[in-house]
């Protein structure tokens, strides 16, 4: 079976020239192009993605690093990234970023070893200074989701999590709630902290103190247990703010088991607009962050950086309030 080296030898050209012919990039004389194609025809050579990678010293692929695979939020991120990469003719390698800055860095290093053309990182653990250093030293472009990187705004995409928390608080306040409890996300999650601070600051501007802040973990069972603890300890609240939809759905289960109902007794609001929320009873009000749009833009930025073209930053957003059935005004005392 003929190899790319055989094509190079018969055509009398380098691998770099064969790469430019196969990928239709760069300046190649018409006569040289014809020699390459003639050699391929004589040898019966059929180029594939591996051969193109060997010829160009790349894998014609993108890398994606995420630190979670569960839930609709990350499922949407991965599927949209894969679709956008496929449309651009790129393969996508997905790596588990784990739960530490070291594991995220190791995942990036593994993708570099695979010779991907660019890397998209949804970071949870790497600091801004660590990201700046990576962007400076990596041999391939790095696009960051979920963190602002000073000096690299054209390749860092982030949400206004603080503003999203404010939006959720305002919705509960607009429904006349004054006794509001909260289930936050993990304390080491920057997103959870930003959402919580936006929420609490909005309550404070209306002279309302949060009834109680329970610790959560972004999982269904975590939301269930946190809400059960609030109810078992007789915390007085008519509305519940949760840091994501998984915990909101778990909390609704705990409220139902206690003999109370949503939203008649307790209103519940979540984050991320998980598709399941549309089919819960009652359907879940949530703040939706445009993860699909961000994933598509990340791929677009990566492709532009590969070609050394200028990138335009994506304006940050605080998301969209999706109003359903789980929030209502508190019931009047009988």
UniProtKB/TrEMBL annotation:
This is Transcriptional repressor of carbon metabolism. Keywords: DNA-binding, Transcription, Transcription regulation. It comes from the Bacteria. Pfam families: LacI, Peripla_BP_3. Gene3D superfamilies: 3.40.50.2300, lambda repressor-like DNA-binding domains (1.10.260.40). It comes from Photobacterium sanctipauli. PANTHER family: HTH-TYPE TRANSCRIPTIONAL REGULATOR ASCG (PTHR30146:SF67), LACI-RELATED TRANSCRIPTIONAL REPRESSOR (PTHR30146). Residues 2-56 form the HTH lacI-type domain. GO terms for molecular function: DNA-binding transcription factor activity; transcription cis-regulatory region binding.
């Amino acid at each position: 079976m003929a190899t790319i080296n055989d094509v190079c030898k018969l055509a009398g050209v380098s691998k770099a020239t064969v790469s430019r012919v196969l990928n239709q990039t760069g300046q190649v004389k018409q006569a040289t192009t014809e020699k390459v194609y003639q050699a391929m025809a004589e040898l019966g050579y059929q180029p594939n993605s591996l051969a193109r990678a060997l010829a160009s010293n790349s894998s014609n692929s993108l890398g994606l690093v995420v630190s979670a695979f569960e839930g609709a939020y990350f499922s949407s991120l991965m599927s949209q990234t894969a679709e956008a990469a496929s449309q651009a003719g790129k393969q996508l390698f997905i790596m588990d970023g784990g739960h530490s800055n070291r594991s995220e860095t190791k995942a990036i290093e593994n993708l570099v070893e695979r010779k991907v053309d660019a890397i998209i990182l949804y970071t949870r653990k790497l600091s801004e200074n660590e990201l700046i250093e990576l962007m400076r030293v990596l041999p391939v472009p790095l696009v960051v989701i979920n963190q602002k990187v000073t000096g690299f705004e054209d390749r860092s995409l982030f949400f206004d999590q603080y503003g999203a928390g404010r939006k959720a608080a305002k919705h509960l306040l607009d429904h006349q709630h004054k006794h509001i409890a909260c289930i936050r996300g993990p304390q080491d999650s920057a997103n959870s902290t930003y959402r919580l601070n936006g929420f609490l600051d909005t309550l404070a501007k209306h002279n309302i103190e949060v009834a109680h802040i329970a610790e959560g973990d972004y999982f269904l069972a975590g939301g269930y247990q946190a809400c059960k603890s609030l109810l078992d300890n007789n915390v007085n609240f008519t509305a519940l703010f949760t840091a994501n939809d998984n915990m909101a759905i778990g909390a609704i289960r705990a409220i139902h088991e206690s003999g109370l109902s949503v939203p008649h007794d307790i209103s519940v609001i979540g984050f991320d607009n998980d598709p399941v929320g549309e089919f819960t009873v009652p359907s879940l009000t949530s703040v939706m962050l445009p993860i699909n749009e961000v994933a598509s833009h990340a791929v677009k930025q990566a492709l532009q950086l590969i070609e050394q073209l200028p990138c335009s930053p994506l304006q940050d957003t605080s998301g969209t309030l999706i109003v359903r059935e789980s929030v209502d005004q508190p019931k009047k005392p009988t």
